[in-house]
Design a protein that fits this description.
Number of helices: 12
Oligomer: single chain
Largest sheet: 5 strands, mixed
Radius of gyration: 25 Å
């Protein structure tokens, strides 16, 4: 079954408005975007788009007008690849504020406020989940910078109307265009120089941007202006499933989203390619594959009770698997290596849990490619009652048969026979394929 993917080519960086503009250039209807955004309890803004030239390339520019004034976001999100001189300050950098009031037309909101705003809307579940994930990534980065919990991080412009429009608008556009996955090439950040923000002069890349890019591939550039904003980096960190070169795919459309800067050595655009993955060429490619994260930590100062509770809680919070391996640590002390397998979206939450419940001072994380058998569940009748059986298939052949333990256990207790007797009966009852 083919997948529709969106491939990002952020050779000139990425920002929220450039991402929205690229989706509009692909065919996202502006009226539909406005209708979907109206499901948020936010008012006082208008959306606009226009065709512009960046270098010699025609692109779409996306604008948000608030209180009659276009948000010339050289000072914040819209088009990071330009100077930061807007009267609202360099607010889009997502820099956290410690309780002060916002100036101008922008309200001061915490991550918790933004999350509640999205959750209470009538947006689709997928748009809600992706929008919250992006804002959470940003809150985590800002929280680490300012030594505060993510929920308490306060945003000035990032929490304001225009930036919420950008973050949520991207997620709306992905769903409206039927995109299954977002892939990306390495991201250009800009290097050297400084940018003005509410906290004074900040180096380029902005601290929050660099924090968000940990573990993600970046593209070398000597251009001394900001190319990627924290909002753009948060969207990439939350939404991109695979990073790498342009994959083998059938391209159906191209989009160009413009930033604000017009005079730079290369076009200030985000280029995107929409298409479908090419048909697999090998049996291996045809199997179900995905990516997971492996979290590990070496522990020698926790009791068995603490480790047992930690493992149970990690599984309850969504980890795919958790196990402990006996190891020898420094000074010949016996210890345990904790290993957690999880979906990439669970990484931050599970890492927070490990640091909360375990005395370790550090964890290791890596992304792994996983190949899986396709799975289905059937129910078979045995002399001891109905038992569910999980069947795994490889290259179209059924290769793995596993009677469900809980069903076999219940039948064994009820009928007074050994559990192995029930398991054997369930296996014999599986229809021949």
């Amino acid at each position: 079954m083919s997948k529709t993917i969106l491939y990002l080519d952020p050779f000139s960086g990425i920002a929220g408005d450039m991402f929205v503009a690229a989706l509009l250039d692909l065919g996202l209807d502006l009226a539909r975007l406005h209708f979907e955004l109206s499901k948020l309890n936010v008012a006082g803004y208008h959306l606009g788009s226009k065709r512009v030239l960046r270098g010699a390339i025609a692109a779409t520019k996306f604008d948000v007008t608030i209180d009659g004034a276009p948000q010339e976001t050289g000072a914040h999100e819209h088009g990071p690849a330009h100077d930061h001189g807007h009267s609202h300050g360099d607010a889009d950098h997502g820099h956290a504020h410690h309780g002060e009031s916002a100036s101008g037309s922008h309200a001061h909101r915490t991550y918790a406020d933004i999350k509640k705003l999205i959750e209470n809307s009538t947006l689709s579940p997928a748009v809600k989940a992706n929008s919250i994930a992006a804002f959470y990534k940003l809150a985590i980065a800002e929280g680490r910078m300012h030594n505060m919990p993510p929920e308490d991080v306060g945003f000035h412009e990032v929490g304001a109307i225009d930036s919420i429009v950008d973050m949520v608008g991207v997620c709306i556009g992905l769903e409206a265009l039927g995109i299954d996955e977002v892939w990306s090439g390495p991201i250009a950040l800009g290097s050297g120089g400084f940018v003005k923000c509410a906290h004074g002069q900040m180096p380029v890349p902005a601290p929050a941007t660099l924090e968000l890019m940990k573990g993600l591939p970046i593209r070398e550039t000597t251009f001394q202006k900001e190319l990627t904003t924290p909002t753009g980096a948060a969207l990439a960190a939350a939404l991109v499933k695979h990073f790498g070169p342009l994959p083998a795919m059938t391209i159906t459309n191209l989009g160009y989203g413009a930033g604000t800067r017009e005079n730079q050595p290369f076009p200030n655009i985000l280029r995107v390619a929409l298409g479908t993955l090419s048909e697999p060429t090998t049996a291996r490619d045809s199997e179900s594959t995905d990516s997971i994260v492996e979290i590990s930590a070496n522990i020698d100062d926790a009791t068995p009770e603490v480790l047992g509770f930690l493992c149970e809680t990690l599984l309850a919070r969504g980890a795919l698997d958790v196990f402990l391996t006996p190891i020898q640590m420094k000074k010949f002390r016996p210890g345990s290596m904790l290993t957690v397998l999880a979906e990439p979206a669970q990484l931050d939450a599970l890492a927070d849990l490990i640091f909360k419940e375990c005395p370790t001072f550090g964890i290791r994380c890596q992304t792994l490619s996983r190949m899986k058998l396709s799975r289905r569940m059937i129910t078979v009748e045995t002399p001891f009652g109905a038992v569910r059986v999980k069947i795994g298939s490889w290259q179209g052949r059924d290769t793995s048969f596993h009677p469900e333990y809980e069903d076999c256990r219940a039948s064994a207790l009820e009928k007074g026979v050994s559990i192995q007797t029930v398991i054997d009966a369930a296996r014999r009852a599986i229809p021949a394929s």
